[in-house]
From TrEMBL, chain A:
Keywords: GPI-anchor biosynthesis, Membrane, Transmembrane, Transmembrane helix
Top-level taxon: Eukaryota
PANTHER family: PHOSPHATIDYLINOSITOL GLYCAN, CLASS C (PTHR12982), PHOSPHATIDYLINOSITOL N-ACETYLGLUCOSAMINYLTRANSFERASE SUBUNIT C (PTHR12982:SF0)
GO annotations of cellular component type: glycosylphosphatidylinositol-N-acetylglucosaminyltransferase (GPI-GnT) complex
GO BP annotation list: GPI anchor biosynthetic process
Protein name: LANO_0E08834g1_1
Topology of the protein relative to the lipid bilayer: Multi-pass membrane protein
From TrEMBL, chain B:
Signal peptide feature range: none
Name this polypeptide is given: LANO_0F15940g1_1
Superkingdom, taxonomy of origin: Eukaryota
Species, as recorded: Lachancea nothofagi CBS 11611
InterPro entries noted in UniProt: PigQ/GPI1
Lineage per the UniProt record: Eukaryota, Fungi, Dikarya, Ascomycota, Saccharomycotina
């Protein structure tokens, strides 16, 4: 039995050079049909929702900087706030799981932080603040990139933790370091998890409240620190990101998108490198 | 085609018309022995292996009587066996054949293989060379046969004296005394070697002095074996590797019987034996000079050394350690860790200085050590003095080695932990069973802990690596003089002095193969020449040692090791094994020596 013809140039095949596959004409007909009909694209609402989710994660990261500024610059006493937040997290965990809360893992985390906070405090004493801000800035960029690429990757969590550790090494006292670590863990690891479960259970109102509160805190902080000008610039750029970019995305999908089995079949192939 | 080996002096010496007598053994070519006159030839019978192969005419030269049209003449100068000259197809071994594996390199292996392939085709040449080496013996036999009817060989005065002395009782007593002494020394030497190489301590790899003692003891153990071999008394348990075995016909009716074994196979042993003896004598004479110099100037030297050691072993190290704790040259170190390490090292320095270094480097004790060293040097040789100096130096620089090992260990651990945590950062884990990196699901607490530790370790890395780098430099500075001294020791212990002098005096005694060159005027005459050993072959152990040293200290893999934080040590026993190549791996037992020696006594 003769081997089936393959659309591969580098394969030596038992067919003449000008051989035309019988399926080829059918494929061309089908291709015509597809090209004449309008292309289906994703719905605008869905794209906006995805962009909003990403925006929300970025805002969560912003909360970390807000906390840091409050501790480092405004010298707030973090103990009460941390205690309240931890209690809240505990209550929420009890409410949501309706079962025994795993005790081991949080205890290990808390004690590790407690042990390591003096070390962290002295970690970068001899370095200048500027280099720490630069390192933190790059780590944040990496973090945002990693949650953009893979939402549920552990690399993003790890980058976040190292960013927190780097920032914490600038704080004045051991208590501050410990509280900052704990707050950041709760805000950036537990809170997204909570919000995700809220969405999964269709508690949209709760989710909306959390989202609005998050935004309110960040914008209030920007306004109080930097003035209205920065708030307006920041808000307008986020609005254009959430509502403008999806339009562009759909336009791109309509005209340039190369996905789809039939459409992409005759495109130039990119090599798959192992 | 037949070859005729023709001694050169036959062509030049004055002969009348005569018969050319040659000898031929199984598998060999013709070797011409002499030109005999007609009446001399009548005494020679062909059953002894002597054959007339032609006639010699001073005007016309050689007229062949063989019915072979094609004859090839190989002219050679007969080797004088009494002067230990001989021909050999292969270079004579300066190292023991059983130790040859130490020099293994792919090139030499290939060469060996080629040799084995060639051996079959060169079998005839090999046989002929064996006959040719015994030229003078065969000639002696021939002459004895001719002159037997005329007169007995005269005994000279000295030989008769020698014979008489050998038969006297005093001589027998002396021989027995010598044997007992040899056995005692051998037993003592072998006990010391066994003790030094013993498993729990293995002092040889620890200290240079122990190694030097071990070397001398092994040499002492090997002396009886070498002596027996040189004098051709078969050691009972040793079978000689006979490369060029030669079976000579037994001639019972003759008073000069040919040798049953080939004499030149013991010549390498002779060279090795006397090389060792000469080196030991040299060593002692150097030692006398240096020892005397040391003893004369001991006061000045000890004062200078006191200042030198105090400055470089205590003050400088102290200064650097203190400096490292205080953010040197603007490098951003972690203050706490740097302070801790600096304090630790300062404490070690102070402790070691106050406990033993100060005691050792005080002027009076240095004077004492100098006295010990100079005495050792005078009694046992320079190498012992040098090895004592090396050991003393390693004792004095122990704190620096300690710093180095501590910082290397910490640095290595840190790198190792960081690598593991980096895998964790990417959600991977090293699979030890399959030796690969697998994906793994980590719990949140594991991730948090791992990442926190990883961040901390990254920030601490510059501090530790700076400490590690500075102490590596210190360690190198300490190691270099030690390595230099040990190289001098290696030279004094193993320099092929005897072979080099033989190469100057009589290159025929150290054959490294043969060359066959055509003689210009005639078509079928060739010149057989001896190639003396080349310098490359003589210094082969040194070349191997140099390569090993370069591999050990100046190679990319060493740099890699230094970067990774694996400690750098002198692999003394591994390196100098190459130079032990003239000694057997395990010394011969005392019992075997006893049987051999008492057998030799008769």
């Amino acid at each position: 039995m003769k081997q089936r013809w393959n659309r591969l140039l580098w394969l030596k095949q038992d067919y003449p050079d000008n051989y035309t596959d019988p399926d080829f004409l059918d494929e061309v007909l089908e291709l015509r049909k597809v090209q004449s009909s309008p292309r289906s694209t994703s719905s605008y609402c869905k794209v906006v929702r995805d962009f909003l989710l990403f925006y929300h994660r970025v805002m969560n990261t912003g909360l970390m900087y807000v906390t840091f500024a409050l501790l480092n610059h405004y010298r707030l006493d973090p103990i009460y706030f941390t205690g309240a937040l931890t209690c809240l997290a505990f209550i929420v965990a009890v409410l949501f799981h309706h079962a025994a809360v795993p005790v081991k893992s949080p205890l290990i985390i808390i004690f590790t932080m407690l042990v390591l906070s003096p070390v962290l405090k002295s970690l970068s004493r001899t370095m200048s603040s500027d280099s720490i801000w630069t390192i933190s800035c790059w780590l944040t960029a990496c973090y945002i990139l990693s949650i953009f690429l893979h939402t549920e990757s552990i690399v993003s969590t790890n980058i976040l933790v190292s960013n927190v550790a780097v920032l914490a090494s600038r704080l004045q006292s051991t208590t501050d370091v410990f509280c900052f670590l704990l707050i950041c863990m709760e805000l950036n690891v537990l809170l997204p998890y909570l919000e995700k479960s809220l969405r999964a259970r269709h508690f949209h109102t709760c989710y909306a409240i959390a989202f609005m509160a998050n935004n309110a805190v960040v914008y209030y902080f920007i306004t109080s620190c930097r003035g209205w000008m920065y708030t307006i610039i920041f808000a307008s750029s986020s609005l254009s990101f959430v509502f403008g970019l999806p339009r562009y995305f759909i336009y791109w999908q309509q005209n340039y998108y190369k996905g789809g089995e039939l459409l992409s079949k005759w495109d130039a192939k990119t090599p798959i490198l192992d | 085609m037949n070859y005729v080996f023709w001694p050169k002096h036959l062509s030049t010496s004055r002969h009348g018309i005569g018969t050319v007598v040659a000898i031929r053994k199984a598998g060999s070519d013709w070797v011409v022995l002499a030109v005999l006159e007609e009446k001399e030839y009548n005494h020679v019978s062909s059953q002894d292996g002597y054959v007339k192969i032609g006639t010699w005419d001073p005007t016309a030269g050689f007229q062949t009587a063989l019915n072979d049209a094609q004859l090839c003449f190989m002219e050679f100068v007969p080797p004088k066996l009494k002067l230990m000259q001989f021909y050999s197809l292969e270079p004579i071994p300066l190292i023991l054949p059983e130790r040859d594996y130490l020099m293994d390199s792919p090139v030499s292996k290939q060469k060996k293989l080629g040799l084995e392939q060639r051996q079959a085709s060169e079998f005839r040449l090999r046989k002929s060379i064996s006959v040719l080496n015994l030229y003078h013996e065969h000639l002696l036999l021939l002459e004895a046969r001719i002159s037997r009817s005329k007169s007995k060989p005269r005994r000279t005065f000295f030989t008769s004296l020698y014979q008489r002395v050998r038969k006297s009782n005093l001589w027998a007593l002396l021989c027995h005394w010598a044997v007992y002494l040899a056995i005692c020394v051998h037993f003592l030497a072998i006990t010391i070697t066994t003790l030094l190489n013993g498993t729990p301590l293995n002092l040889v790899s620890q200290s240079a002095t122990a190694q030097q003692i071990d070397l001398r003891c092994q040499q002492l153990c090997y002396f009886p074996v070498q002596y027996l071999r040189i004098n051709e008394i078969p050691a009972s348990n040793k079978t000689h590797p006979r490369s060029e075995c030669q079976e000579t016909q037994k001639e019972n009716d003759n008073h000069i019987s040919p040798r049953t074994s080939f004499p030149c196979e013991n010549y390498p042993d002779y060279i090795r034996f006397y090389n060792t003896i000469w080196l030991i004598v040299n060593d002692v004479s150097f030692g006398l000079t240096v020892g005397t110099l040391l003893a004369e100037n001991s006061h000045n030297i000890s004062e200078y050394l006191n200042v030198f050691f105090t400055r470089y072993l205590f003050e400088k190290v102290h200064q650097v350690s203190t400096l490292l704790g205080q953010n040197p040259i603007g490098i951003k170190l972690n203050g706490e860790l740097a302070c801790f390490l600096s304090d630790l090292f300062l404490w070690i320095i102070d402790f070691s200085y106050s406990t033993y270094i100060r005691g050792i480097i005080s002027t009076s004790s240095i004077g004492f050590f100098l006295k010990v060293i100079s005495t050792t040097s005078c009694c046992f040789g320079l190498t012992f003095a040098l090895s004592l100096i090396v050991d003393l130096m390693s004792l004095l620089t122990m704190h620096i080695s300690l710093f180095y090992f501590i910082s290397a260990k910490m640095y290595h651990w840190q790198l190792h932990v960081m690598r593991t945590l980096l895998y964790l950062f990417y959600g991977k884990k090293r699979n030890v069973l399959r030796n690969r990196v697998d994906s793994n699901h980590f719990e949140l607490d594991q991730l948090l802990m791992g990442t926190l530790f990883f961040t901390i370790l990254i920030f601490l890395l510059p501090t530790l690596s700076l400490f590690y780098a500075s102490f590596t430099v210190f360690r190198m500075a300490v190691l270099m003089p030690e390595v230099a001294l040990e190289s001098i020791m290696a030279l004094l212990n193993h320099f092929p002095l005897f072979v080099l002098l033989l190469k100057l005096k009589d290159p025929k005694r150290i054959p490294g193969g043969i060359t066959v060159k055509p003689i210009k005027d005639s078509a079928n005459s060739f010149n057989l020449q001896n190639n003396p050993l080349m310098f490359k072959t003589i210094f082969r152990p040194y070349a191997v040692l140099m390569r090993m040293m370069v591999d050990n200290y100046f190679s990319l893999s060493t740099l890699n090791q230094v970067l990774v934080g694996r400690p750098l040590t002198i692999k003394r026993n591994k390196m100098y094994k190459v130079l032990y190549s003239a000694l057997p791996k395990t010394p011969i037992t005392t019992r075997a020596v006893w049987t051999a020696l008492s057998g030799a006594l008769g």
